[in-house]
TrEMBL record:
One of its GO terms (molecular function) is 2-amino-4-hydroxy-6-hydroxymethyldihydropteridine diphosphokinase activity. GO terms for biological process: folic acid biosynthetic process; tetrahydrofolate biosynthetic process. It is an enzyme of class 2 (transferase). Coiled coil: none annotated. It comes from the Bacteria. This is 2-amino-4-hydroxy-6-hydroxymethyldihydropteridine diphosphokinase. NCBIfam families: folK (TIGR01498). It catalyses: 6-hydroxymethyl-7,8-dihydropterin + ATP = (7,8-dihydropterin-6-yl)methyl diphosphate + AMP + H(+). Residues 26-155 form the 7,8-dihydro-6-hydroxymethylpterin-pyrophosphokinase domain.
Length: 187
């Protein structure tokens, strides 16, 4: 029997055959339940262990007042992670959900306290809007808990269609977002 040639992979995102491009993605992580720092560290370690993902940098840890969360929700620890990836955006979202699940997050009401939340903020200049994924993240531009840590590690950062992080941060209330110099996520 003759061996068939290796098929080209048709990439659902780019509709190009063969290799997928390397894109830089910005990921927001947050936790307001349990051992919050440990959850954030676990999320970053899990991203580092993901094939086709290269963690480029991670921000400081910020303690942040809950935004749009139910009355009585505790403060979050938040951070932002920059990665390079060749994964498709939907595979990356699946990975984000798997990491949330690995840390015991229960999917209950929107905004409910969560052990770990992993959001895709931007993935290169990809735009998506389907039943599972919106890119750029539709609320990132108004969230100080995303913009401040992102600005720290990527002063040139930009949200396609919204503007530069350095400008957007001037339009949001940053009072509830405090850098915790005593906490650190290790790479
Ligand atoms: N850019 C994105 N990043 C992460 N999830 C997204 C994104 N766009 C759409 N979603 C979808 O949103 C759904 C709900 O996500 P999740 O439970 O994390 O929301 P939330 O954290 O309560 O609120 P928010 O979306 O405002 O951060 C997910 O199942 C996911 O399919
Ligand atoms: N401070 C803060 N508030 C939030 C956060 C978060 O990560 N930090 N995540 C939310 C839903 O993703 C809703 N509100």
């Amino acid at each position: 029997m003759t061996e068939s040639p290796t098929p080209y992979v048709l990439d659902a995102d780019t509709m190009t055959g063969g290799m997928r491009p390397i894109r830089q993605a910005v990921i927001s992580i947050g936790s307001n339940l349990g051992d919050r720092l440990n959850r954030l560290q676990g999320a970053v370690s899990a991203l580092e262990d993901t094939p086709e993902v290269q963690v480029v940098s991670v921000s400081s840890v910020y303690e942040t007042q809950p935004v749009g969360a139910p009355e009585g929700s505790g403060p979050f620890l938040n951070a932002v992670v920059l990665i390079d990836t060749t994964l498709t955006v939907h595979t990356l979202l699946d990975r984000a959900h798997a990491i949330e699940d690995a840390f015991g997050r229960e999917r209950s009401e929107p905004g409910a306290p969560r052990t770990l939340d992993v959001d895709l903020v931007v993935v290169g200049d990809r735009v998506a809007d389907d039943e599972t994924l919106t890119l750029p993240h539709p609320r990132a531009h108004e969230r100080a808990f995303v913009l401040l840590p992102w600005l720290e590690i990527d002063p040139e950062g930009e949200i396609p269609g919204q503007g530069f992080v350095a400008d957007l941060v001037g339009d949001v209330d940053t009072t509830g977002v405090v850098r915790r110099e005593d906490l650190e996520i290790l790479l």
